[in-house]
Design a protein that fits this description.
- The structure is a single chain.
- With 642 residues, the protein is of the alpha/beta class.
- Strand 10 and strand 11 form a beta hairpin.
């Protein structure tokens, strides 16, 4: 079709689904001049944000083609793809428009790739597999293959998806279709069928941020079709591919059972419905994990691979890949490209442009150097849903007590930090096993004693609300009881240095969970101001609970001054006989603040006084002017304009 250059129209087939409505949201946030609409089989339906959806039904091809022909681009987000296959693509070809799909089915991929000559004959473009797996996994594999990281041309895909997001109605069909007695994998440069290797010594894998290995489910990745296709640019660089995944609460034994009994299509549909309802229930469980992890590597060497990890759903990642791919298309990056193309068959320039577009949205993979990631405290990853306003970022104006739900892996990680700490090792050396048990009993007894002492604590200033006060009492008394008992055993100098190291390392990990990653602030109009705004909102949340007193002001050239006084934590540390701990919370907070500030155009001059008091100056690294902006909800906030 033809349309005005300044008003491009995009239709998202399946705009009511888990991924479809996200694609609409991301595309609209990327460019407000594009007209983006979704579809539903029922005209009266609305999307999650109450946007009307156009009627669209694959079973009514004439009406579907008529609708499609009025758009510049279609994004196919309907499913399950095992059943839909190439039907929507054929309608797009008949309507004379290009399309992008998020296909994750190897069966559908075979059908879609078969349209290549048809698409070329009609001068049309089909971009297929532009999602999480394939899509992101394909980009990572292509990068590894280009760099020839495997001497044997052997690569692996490992994925983990937490259960905190429930899942869409099409997802269970994709999961069930992966439970097969045979997998289609590439070996020796050819796609071959193998008996599913449930127990081949590679079924366990420890993902980043996890403390234990978990079992994996082998599956037939779409890359096994795309890599060996005639269009592929990397077929000579990948000769073997091993692909496996884990979904929280989904046990390999259950997958093996279903693969063995081969349920009928009717039974699979019933199971898919049960899976969907179960997923909606499980996302409310206390230990439902919000993380998604994707790891691609060569030669059974995870440490030599690439890693993507974050508190973000696979649906968001799929939608972001599709949206970024659409952004390239709408900016005429594919103007001379025709046929059916996957990531593997894109030019290097196209792949790098897609990687750059994703990076702009905060989606990027890192080298799988776990020691370096641990040093940075990134136990919960670094990728999150992109936001354009600081107020909408994760845990904005929240703190440790008011954040809605602690990460389910927080306690196991805290335990790991303790057991692997220098101070724990020193104490184990100081005592024999029996006396060490006595030391633990003494610490627990002192913890109860310190909690009792704090129950009698009085202050000239108001204390936090009762529920917050109870949590603060528990936390502070835990710190002081453990530290003071270690001080008795090791001496103050040795105990303090070791305890401080453990406290700050654990705190770094905890603050990386609580706050957005530094790169997320680059999406804001002024990253520096966004970081400062986020920091002050965090401090204010503690001031509102009577834990600190905060004052701040901004001068005419954009410098921010703030003062922290009357720190309740510092007063409680001193009250319980551990005044040397008074500055530790400020040290932890400063490290977290500088982590987001220094890489986003700012610096801070920080002076610490007695009892955790701080006077600080935050300066932008370049000259900025203060202006006003209003977010779409009408909430006005100060922003700095470069």
């Amino acid at each position: 079709m033809t349309s005005s250059a300044d008003k491009k129209r995009v239709i998202v087939l399946g705009g009511k689904g888990e991924t479809g409505y996200r694609i609409i949201h991301f595309l609209r946030s990327m460019n407000t001049s594009w007209e983006v609409v979704g579809t539903s089989r029922h005209a009266a339906n609305l999307s999650s944000d109450n946007t009307p959806l156009l009627p669209f039904d694959l079973a009514s091809p004439k009406e579907a083609i008529k609708t499609l022909s009025t758009f510049d681009l279609a994004i196919i987000a309907i499913g399950p793809m095992e059943k839909v296959r190439e039907k929507a693509h054929l309608l797009c070809l008949d309507a004379g428009i290009d399309c992008i799909d998020i296909n994750d089915s190897i069966t559908a991929a075979d059908s879609i790739f078969s349209l290549d000559q048809n698409a070329k004959d009609q001068n049309r473009l089909i971009l297929t597999g532009m999602g999480f797996m394939p899509g992101l996994s394909s980009l990572m594999l292509a990068r590894l293959a280009e760099e020839e990281r495997s001497s044997q041309k052997y690569y692996s895909i490992r994925a983990y998806m937490g259960a905190a997001y429930g899942g869409g109605k099409a997802s269970p069909h994709a999961i069930l279709s992966s439970f097969e007695p045979y997998v289609s994998w590439i070996k020796n440069g050819k796609r071959q069928k193998f008996k599913t290797p449930w127990k081949d010594g590679k079924q366990l894998f420890t993902f980043s941020g996890h403390t234990k290995a978990i079992s994996l489910i082998p599956y037939s990745a779409v890359e096994n079709t795309a890599i060996v296709s005639e269009q592929s640019n990397i077929s000579d660089k990948i000769e073997s591919l091993d692909s496996r995944y884990n979904i929280q609460y989904l046990h390999q034994g259950f997958a093996r059972f279903l693969a063995a009994i081969a349920p009928s299509e009717k039974r699979k549909n019933q199971l898919a419905d049960m899976f969907y309802k179960s997923g909606q229930s499980m996302k409310e469980k206390r230990d439902a994990d919000p993380d998604t992890i994707l790891w691609c590597y060569p030669d059974d060497s995870p440490e030599k691979g690439l890693l993507l990890h974050g508190m973000i759903s696979s649906y968001d990642l799929t939608a972001l890949v599709a949206a970024c791919c659409a952004e390239l298309y709408l900016n005429n990056q594919f103007s001379n490209t025709r046929g059916v193309l996957s990531v593997e068959s894109l030019s290097k320039a196209h792949r790098y442009a897609l990687i750059e577009g994703l990076s702009v949205q905060g989606v990027h993979f890192k080298e799988a150097d776990l020691e370096q990631l641990k040093e940075a405290g990134l136990y919960f990853g670094w990728v999150e849903c992109p936001q354009k306003y600081a107020q909408r970022m994760k845990h904005y104006s929240r703190n440790w007590y008011t954040a809605p739900k602690q990460h389910p892996r927080m306690i196991p990680l805290q335990k790991m930090f303790l057991l692997e700490s220098d101070i724990w090792g020193a104490l184990r050396k100081e005592f024999n096993p029996l006396s060490f048990a006595g030391f633990i009993v003494k610490t627990l007894s002192r913890w109860r004693q310190h909690q009792k002492m704090l129950s009698e604590y009085s202050s000239s200033v108001a204390l936090p609300p009762p529920d917050i006060w109870a949590k603060a009492v528990k936390d502070i008394s835990m710190f002081t009881s453990g530290y003071s008992c270690a001080r008795d055993a090791l001496g103050q100098d040795k105990a303090y240095q070791m305890y401080r190291k453990m406290f700050l390392e654990t705190g770094k990990m905890e603050m990386r969970w609580l706050w957005p990653d530094a790169q997320q602030f680059t999406l804001l109009e002024s990253p520096h101001h966004g970081a400062v705004q986020y920091w002050l909102a965090y401090l204010k949340s503690y001031a509102d609970l009577n834990i600190i007193t905060l004052s701040s002001e901004v001068d005419e050239i954009g410098n921010t001054f703030f003062v922290i006084k009357d720190c309740l934590y510092a007063n409680l540390f001193s009250f319980l006989g551990c005044p040397e701990l008074s500055h530790l919370v400020r040290e932890m907070e400063r490290e977290a603040f500088e982590y987001i500030l220094l890489s986003n155009g700012g610096r801070v001059e920080w002076d610490v006084f007695e009892q955790g008091n701080v006077s600080a100056l935050i300066c932008p690294s370049s000259s900025e002017n203060i202006v006003k902006h209003a977010d779409p909800e009408g909430q006005e906030f100060a922003a700095l304009h470069l």
